[in-house]
Amino acid sequence: MVVLIATVCLNLALFKIVPKGFFPQQDIGRVVGSIQADQSISFQAMRQKLAQLQAIVQSDPAVVTVKGYTGSGSGQTNSGFVYIDLKPPGQRRETADEVIGRLRRKLAQVAGARLYLQSVQDIRMGGRLSNAQYQYTLQGDDTDELYAFAPRLLKALQNSSILVDVNTDQQQKGLKTDVVVDRDTASRLGLVMSQIDNTLYDAFGQRQVSVIYSAINQYHVVMEVDPRYWQDPSILNDLYVSTSGASPSGTVTSNAVAGTVTQSAALPSPGSSATASTSSQTASVEGAEARNAQTNALANTGRQGTSSGAAVSTSQEPMVPLAAFSHFEPGHTPLAVNHQGLFVASTISFNLPPGVALGDAAYEIKQTMANLHAPATIHGSLQGTARAFEESLANERFLILAALAAIYIVLGILYESFVHPVTILSTLPSAGVGAVLALLLFHTEFSIIAMIGVILLIGIVKKNAILMIDFALEAERSEGLSPRDAIFRACILRFRPIMMTTFAAIFGAVPLALSFGDGGEIRRPLGIAIVGGLIVSQLLTLYTTPVLYLYLDRFRLWANRHWRRLFPRVAGAVPEPSE
Questions:
Q1: What pLDDT, on a 0 to 100 scale, did the predictor assign at position 287?
Q2: Does the structure show a pLDDT above 80 at 316?
Q3: 271 has pLDDT over 60
Q4: 120 pLDDT exceeds 60?
Q5: CATH number listed for the domain at residues 180-261+281-292+305-329
Q6: Mean pLDDT value of segment 198-221
């Protein structure tokens, strides 16, 4: 009995101290990486950083191929992705996590860009796209408070020794240039805001203005300035705005299909006289018709179709420098504003170094939030795989209790007793102790896979106890043996089938515990838990089960005597069977 009580207490203590995780970290030979560069970086500079990072990764002896790209359409020019294939496990000594750790030190020497690497896993539970495997999201009612607190939490977590690759999707240092327009000056020059907006959009907005059709394809025509002028906001000083755009004054338009040119009567502009003669207008139209005919002839050359472009102005227009009525102010702008639900959100993502459990990381983040005294308007929660782990951890105890309750009810119905199911359930704590001790011995987390192993242990160990108790009860009823003699005979005669069942289960679980091959890490906790639990439970239950059977049988007799003394039989009641 002392051994049984000590086993129960040890079981509770071990489950409290064992490192807890969600799914084991696998090594399937593939690594994915996310690049986060300076927020003000250009696309051309980002391509150079990508090539530099790829060269460092490719130089590692464990790497086979590296593929990367940037400009994925996410709206952020400072991000990119890298995909890495490692050599098979038999051709490299290091695990994927060890290779990542070695590359992390080399990649840290690249200035202006960070490459965050993580091993690809077969199982990943949702979450937003991030630079690391696990996410912690902050939400708040006050955007300013959220944007002020998130960098504090980020810095504190970066100083933690149990978290690596800590980063955030909150990027507010993107460069911008505000064009401040003097509306009075612009109005005196004959300009309206729509003209200024259209000019800026034509230059930098990559507006689609036409589609060219061919026999087998179509081509979108995009209007923009030469990309080399995107790199410096000083180009705004060389930008001009037309005073006649979007005005009813004389415009000449060409129709590429019909080859016609139209011109409306010119309206006098402020400060000028309408002295254009009819002959000059006619000459202008004739010249435009000639140019239009040449354009159509070129467009119809070969098998190419004509374009569907908008009207093309051929008249001379006054141009006003943008700097004549505006000035430019540099500043910062967010590269993206992220939301979760109805609130603005800031997500901090992180990876775990080898040997650190996800449960320890979750506790570290919780303690850091408490130490920083987060404002009442800000609340945080784990997301994705980390959130699924948190929810599963909260439900584990209820899952085990539900399994024990179901077993007790079924055994109670089978034996028509409230006591004998307790004898069988008493074998389970030793199985839990063995499973957790084995996990601690091999430095393995108590994960969902290990939990499945414990559930399997409950069935196997319970079956061994049933073999013994079932035989003892049958011997008492059919042969009239005393409980002591019945359980002794059960131990002698059922020893061989119990050991055969145990060794068969152990040998079946050994390949799982060894788990060679790609991704075998996910099966290893299952085998370790089964082997360790069966060995320890078999050593203990061969002694504790007979002792507990006798103690509970005496308790049953004592309880029956006191029950009859407190509640004597009433007349007409059905007599209970004699003991």
A1: 56
A2: no
A3: no
A4: yes
A5: 3.30.2090.10
A6: 89
Average pLDDT, the chain: 81
From residue 470, give the alpha-carbon distance in Å to each of 29, 420, 474, 496, 504.
50, 10, 6, 15, 21
Q: Which residue's structure tokens are 């077993």?
A: 407
CATH H-level superfamily of 2-19+394-565: Multidrug efflux transporter AcrB transmembrane domain (1.20.1640.10)
Secondary element (H or E) of residue 456: helix 448-479
Each residue of 59-74: pLDDT tens digit?
Answer: 999 999 999 988 765 5
Could you give the C-alpha distances from 315 to 201, 248, 278, 359, in angstroms and in order? 22, 13, 16, 72
DSSP class per residue in 301-317: STTPPPB-------S--
- Could you state, in order of their start, the residue ranges of all structural domains in the chain? 2-19+394-565, 27-120, 133-172+334-383, 180-261+281-292+305-329
- Nearest one of 395, 527, 444 to 24, comparing CA atoms: 444
Stated length of the chain: 579
Residue 127 pLDDT level (bands cut at 50, 70, 90)? low
User: 3-state DSSP call for residue 167?
Assistant: strand
Equal CATH topology for 2-19+394-565 and 27-120: no
CB 242 within 8 A of CB 195: yes
HSE on the CB side for 8, CA within 13 Å?
8
Q: Which CATH architecture has domain 27-120?
A: 2-Layer Sandwich (3.30)
What is the DSSP code (8-state) at residue 567? S
CATH number attached to the domain at 133-172+334-383: 3.30.70.1440
Give DSSP secondary structure letters for 222-280.
EE---GGGGS-GGGGGG-EEESSTTSSS--EEEETTTTEEEEPPPPPPTT------HHH
Question: pTM here?
Answer: 0.67
Angstrom distances, CA of residue 517 to CA of 105, 151, 269, 453, 511: 28, 41, 82, 20, 11
Name the least confident of 48-52, 89-93, 256-260, 396-400.
256-260
Residue 574 has pLDDT above 50, yes or no: no
Structure tokens at 81: 């992705």
